[in-house]
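Re: duplicated header lines in exported structure tokens

Our pipeline writes sequence and tokens for each protein into one text file. With two proteins the header for the second block appears twice in some exports. Here is an export where it did not happen, for reference. First protein block:
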Amino acid sequence: MNNPVLPHSLSHPDVKIDDLSKVEQLKRDSRGLRGSLSAELAEPTSAFSEPMTQLLKFHGMYQQDNRDDRKRGADGKMQKSHSLMIRGRIPGGRLTAEQYLKLDELAGLYGQGSLRLTTRQSIQYHGVLKSDSKELLKGIRDVVLSTIAACGDVVRNVTQALNPTKDPELALIDAIADRISSHFEPQSGAYAEVWLDGEPVEFEEKLEPIYGAQYLPRKFKIGVTIAGNNTLDLFTNDMGIAATLKNGTIDGYYFYAGGGLGKTHRNADTYPRLASPLGWVPEKALIAVSEAIITTQRDFGDRKDRKHARLKYLIEEQGVDWFRSEVERRSGYTFELREEPVWKNPEYLGWQEALDGTLSLGLHILAGRIKDFDGKPIRSAIREVVAQYRPDIQITADQDLILTGISKEHQEAIEAHFEGQGISLSPKGSLYHRALACPALPTCGLAITEAERFLPSVLDTLQKPLDELGLPAPSIRMTGCPNGCARPYSAEIGLVGRSLGMYALYLGGSIEGTRLASEITDSLKAEHLEEAGRMLFSAWKQERIHADEAFGDFAHRKGTQALQELLSPLLKAPVRAE
């Protein structure tokens, strides 16, 4: 099968980096992600230069501007309030008690007293001053963690399935997630030089044998699981790996490729997409096939238009068959086309008994924000429990926290501790336990409107008709822009920011994470949310084919046109043509 001629990719013989995006030119000239970061870090300024903000991403941070804190300068113009968002590299979201306590301590010192759990099983610090960034990264290093490649055009934090019951089969993928994370970590010494006072080393392209001097066209997300367990939203990743078992050991892997949820409003060339199945390969093929998938994207991905640079566009436009053949050619392995697993998304919130006789406690953290709120000191309460009982910890892809290895004799005391701080351990029953949101305003530079700060109001608003109708809570995810960080496009209900007070509404994703939602309207006003919810939930109750039909399944079955007609009294128009 002939390879396509793609003039926007490195595979084209006549490609010139100067004709591609500015970020591609910056990567080429960065000397292995160094640029002028060290020099600018030493300057007594509050911000890095714009070019260096692109390189900062590879080191695990974004430079941000808190729009709420802007002040007018002497020239009468509004001055930006710069700070950094710094994100950890935590494969599978797994932490020891010691690591968690150190991350909590650093939040108090440098992160405005807040830890934020991410949808990629990591943590973020917001509001970090440039002058504090180096000490924060050194502190993270002290507990054998880092922030390298938590952002940027590389393999980002590797996610994995949850294991609240300490299932030994699920535990097998701990080593797989760690192996993948380590294998695809950038080899440049820039991170150690800039942040950890390492010795300067001259960059050579051969030091990046997988990425090369240009790294990847865009971010690359990987998830790892046991076939059938989708507690990580596997299909939203660029590459999904699902292990199969034989006699209690891993004998091979299903591979999936081309997932990703970001899009751009009014740009039909961008869209969310779930990963496509490539097939099954034996266990020994893990690294070879993973490298082949990543290097195919490296060589053929779009390097001219960053909005069109994810692997999903290459696969959608060139075809799964072409992509599968190219991966087989590069890896030396042939995919076996097996029957697909049946996917489930098991519950993890609340208390569960593990197979070793200990307990796990799944804590719901609204929008992943761990801080001491008035009347609800979540950060302090968790810190005190972790310090006293020393559980292991896993961050979830739904922005929650699981404490594992808890002795049964401590259950009552832990419950009393949390309840005494106003923190409910009830695992089910409301939208709050099924909700995700991105930070959005005021710090995210891409945010169009509110998400995290507006989420509690949205949940209160939509919970009313659910309670009135006696219905269970569907999953709901909310973002302040179309980039999809909180995965709204695969939720039963997705709200995507369009403008201040206006959201696109997506309905019909599946609980199992195997189906995208459909866009019903791009112009739902926030003030109409309660009435829209009442219309939709009433129809669900009246028309569901059985009492257990999930809202997402109902919405998918009913169809986009029927749902638009149902909501038409609230909408100026259905979805506008892109």
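Second protein block, exported in the same file:
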Amino acid sequence: MPIIDTDLMINYLRKKPEAVQIILRIIKENETLKTTIFNVGELYKGAYLSLDVAKSISGITDLLKHFEIISYTLEDAIIYGKISAELKKSGKKIGDIDELIASLVINHNETLITRNIKHYNRIPNISLQNWESID
């Protein structure tokens, strides 16, 4: 199963119909949902910035019960270093967290399900799918 980006999980937590439908369909089909440790960090950052921290954390905890969380490895770090350096040299940086996420996606030979296609398209050899175009 592809790796789910933070934007899809946030929209699920906000009960946006398209996002809820995609996540529930994957769960119903007994496919494993995957995300990265960096996406989880972004979710918790948002929770601690929210008006109702306890409610936000509860929602994240419930959602993550359905996810395999991919940890960071030395191989991922090497790929990140290459990606980040190339983007910096070309003046096309997208931010360290997203570059870290991309390094895991590439190293695990997965597809990232995200709405941020233009953003991630700056990274060579990454496989992307826009969740807004999933039936």
